Amino acid sequence: MYKAPRGTADVLPADQLYWSHIIQTAEALCRRYGYQRIDTPLFEDAGLFQRSIGAGTDIVEKETYSFEDRSHELLTLRPEGTAPVCRAYLEHGMHVLPQPVKLYYIAPSFRYERPQAGRYRQFHQFGFEALGETDPALDAEVVDMAWQLYRDLGIGRLTVLLNSIGDGQCRPAYIQALAGYYRGLGEQMCHDCQMRLEKNPLRLLDCKQAQCQPLIQAAPKMVDYLCLECRDHFARVERYLGLLGVPYQIEHRLVRGLDYYTRTVFEVVPAGGGQQSTVGAGGRYDGLIEQLGGRPTPGIGFAAGVERMVLNLKRQETVLDDPGRPQVYLAYHGDAAKEAAVRLARQLWDAGVNTTLAVGDRSLRAQLRHANTLNAAHAAVIGEDEVAQATVTLRHLETGEQETVPQADLAARLGGR
Ligand code: HAM
Q1: Which helix (H) or strand (E) holds 137?
Q2: Which of 278, 284, 289, 306 to mutate to test the pocket of ligand 1 (most atoms within 8 A of CB)?
Q3: Domain boundary among 315, 338, 368
């Protein structure tokens, strides 16, 4: 028997309610903040992700699904949405549009990771990107929008972690100071950190090993190394966040696992949870478009994992209205009644009423049990008397109350058009 590949999941009907709640909420949010939808291909030239996310990052080194196609092009299944959006901005000359250009996407993404709760190899990101503007008010707006997403969804107990990782001017001096500090620690750091020290010292701050925690606490902090411009930018982001009323916590250790970030970085995490459970993350990437061959163009954005939002909604036992719940189940006894039920089904469907017509050879009692299992709001029962009088017995399945309704009035009685 075949199974879905490791790290992938079928989204079964029972979960679709959560998915549509998330997608509708996300799209309403984007309309409110002036973002337009963009869809980019499922795969891109492999070089796009190497140049943007960074050739030395875990994502590019260990997690991409890359393959050569039949004409020997090296392609990569999208591991995230920011680089493709920047590629599309350049390819379609969007710099001529009024800036910032605000785009959003809801898209499957692929990373060869070790699967666990909330971590998949095929997952979905809802993300948004604002391109072409450096104003720190935009940083605050993007963080605010991320925060509102979870509020609108009804996901509670979250925290925004915020940091600035400086820019090309000031970060090298910080990395040097950090590496100098760690070099002096020798064997006190874990084996992985010894590798990080050589390859990507910023990631030292991300280590989860217990032995490294006190070392991280005492490490030099990026804020102390920010250049004047970056310090001013960060101060203004904080000021605007205050005006917008977005709660946040400064987290000096927050560095993110993608190379393209500059200045503002942020993550949204469950109040008590570790990084594994990050529900969304983003930041500024002012050098990215230039790195992809465009003119210097700033950008900032955010992305949230849809599966992680579903997980959080389920954990807190959120109950959602099911728009597909049958409003009425048509039950009958006898051939003439069945024909009346089929005619009624035609009228109800035309009137936009969610209707399930009993089928098969069930007894009336079994039909009513079926109506209950489907969570139908009403059952309309047609027997000999109802056929003779052109009525139905309409039973409200929660209260058990029933009334006689002319067949011709049933659609209107159930709120049909
Ligand atoms: P990221 O932190 O790699 O950032 O991913 C963003 C979110 O995608 C995560 O917080 C998580 O909710 C979800 N996610 C990531 N990997 C997985 C996985 N394997 N399974 C399930 N969910 C996952 C980015 O991708 C950046 N492009 C975000 C961004 C947009 N920065 C600026 N604009």
Answers
A1: helix 136-153
A2: 278
A3: 315
